[in-house]
Amino acid sequence: MKLTLLRHGQTEGSLRDLYYGATDLPVLPESLAALHESADRYPTARRYYTSGLLRTEQTLRAIYGDVPHTALPGLREMDFGDFEMRSYEELKDDPAFRQWMTDSEHNPCPNGESAPQTMARNLAAIGTVLASDEDAVCVIHGGVIAGFMMTWFGGLRVDWYRQAGTGYQVTFSGGVPTGWLPIPEGK
What is the CATH number of the domain that holds 110? Predict the structure, then answer.
């Protein structure tokens, strides 16, 4: 089985380096146009999934057109709670943010989620995709993709972050991840 994990297109939030996960931002028009122009560089599959948020729905349509797909809310990005839609510069002197940053892999965001809570939700959702044992494309979020890759192949979350509109294709054998390639290839 081949599982393609694609990060949604560029948003105002990613352009401005904001913490956002629960906020339902659209993809920038120029990013949608670029994704559509390079659609032939992306792998296709038997099944398609999104997180259901606007940015993932728009990215799926830009690359694959109106393919039938399933929205899995469990594949959504972390809810950054009080830090949503704010930048590091805005937050760097906030004591709650500084406390969170001492161990952002485990500390929950105030009025939001922790990375382990998010990962448990993400793994439960991807389990339904993997259970089909059919090639699939998931248009989702950068932090979710990085969390999967870190879980499956080791390293740190930051080792696996990808630019908007890119991702990985992971090969599974008997339900076990055995290898990966960057998608689109060469990026």
Answer: 3.40.50.1240
Domain count, the chain: 1
- The pTM for the full model equals 0.95
Which tens digits make up the pLDDT trace of 150-164? 999 999 999 999 999
Beta bridge partners of 11: 27
Q: List the domain range (segments joined by +) for residue 113.
A: 2-183
The confidence band for 114, taking pLDDT boundaries of 50, 70 and 90, is: very high
Residue 149 exposed, middle or buried by CB count within 10 Å (0-12, 13-18, 19+): buried
